[in-house]
Amino acid sequence: MGVTSSIKRGSAELAILSVLVEEPLHGYEISKRIEEHTGGVLRFNLASLYPMLYRLEKRGWVKASWQTTSSGRRRRCYSLTAAGRKQLPPLRDEWRLFFRALDRLAGVSRA
Amino acid sequence: MPDWENIVRERLGALGVSPEREEEVVAELAGHFEDTYEGCLERSATPESALAFAFSEVTHWARLRKEIRRAAREEDPMSVHTKNLVLLGMTMLISAAILLLALLRQVPPVAWVHPKAPMLFFIPWLLSYCVLGALGAYWSRREGGNTATRFLSGVFPVAMHLAIFLCVIVAAVTGASRNPEHLLPSFLVRAGLSFVVVPGIALAIGTLPFLRNHTRESSPAGT
Predict the structure, then answer these.
(1) Domain A5-106's class?
(2) In chain A, which residue's Cα lies nearest the Cα of B32?
C-alpha cells in the first residue's frame, strides 16, 4: 500500500471515529457531519465511506444496527464500541505527532 | 423516485459475501443514494441534476465492489495477532520438546552421572534455551507483542517443563510404579530447580535483549 492511500485511510478512520463519538449516525449523516465540521474541506462520498465503515465494523471499532428514522426509513446506524473509543486517543496523538513533524520539516504553519 | 435498490444491485454485481449480507449492503447503499438525491432536491436542485449528483457518489462501481470485498475479507487485526502469538508459543514449545527429547535420546543414562555431565550436557542445553528464549521474544516483538507478551513468548516452553514435573509427582503418588522418593521435599526442590526454575531462567535471560521497545517514531502513514 502506498503512503498516500495509507494517509487517506488513517485520516478517514480518525474522521469517522471523531464524529461517531458524538452520537450514533448512519452513513449519509456521517459524510454530512464530516463535511460540515471541516467546512467542506473533507468530503466522503459513498465509494470512500462504506468500505471504510465495513473495515471499522470488522475490526470491532464500530457496530451497526438497523433503525427507523423520523421519516420512517430504515437506515443502518453506526455507533462507537468501547474498542473504537479506546482507539481514538492514540489515533489523535499519532496525527498530532505527524502534523508536528511535518510542520518542523516543511514549516506548514508558517507558510 | 428511482428504484435505488435495483440500481445498486445491478451496478454493484455479486459481492461474494452471504446473500443476507449482500442484501444488507445493497439496502444500505440504496439508502445513501436516496438521502443524497433528496438532499439535493431539498436544496432546490432539479430532479435531473439531483440524479446526476447522486450518481457522482460512485464513479467506479468495479472498484467499489473490490473495496467492499476486500473489507469483508479483512481479518480482525486482534485475531491475527492472537493467532500469531499462539502459533509462536506452540513453535517454541515444540522446539523445546525436540531439544529435550534429542538430549534424552543421544545421551546414555550412564553419562548423566559422569562428573563432567553439567559441562557436557546441562550447560549447552541451557545455552540452547537462552537462544530459544531470544527467538521467542524476537518473534513476538516482530508481531507487535508488548513487553509482557514478548517475555511470555520467550519463557513459554517452561510450561512444558512444569507439566512434566507435575506429571512425575502425580505418577509418584498414583502411578503403577509409585516412587515415594519422588515425594521427598529434597527431591522436589532439586528436581524443581534443575528442571523448571533453571531452564526458565535461561529462557528469561534469552528474552532480555528483546524486551526493550524500538524508539523509532512512526507516522500515520504506517497505520
Answers:
(1) mainly alpha
(2) A28
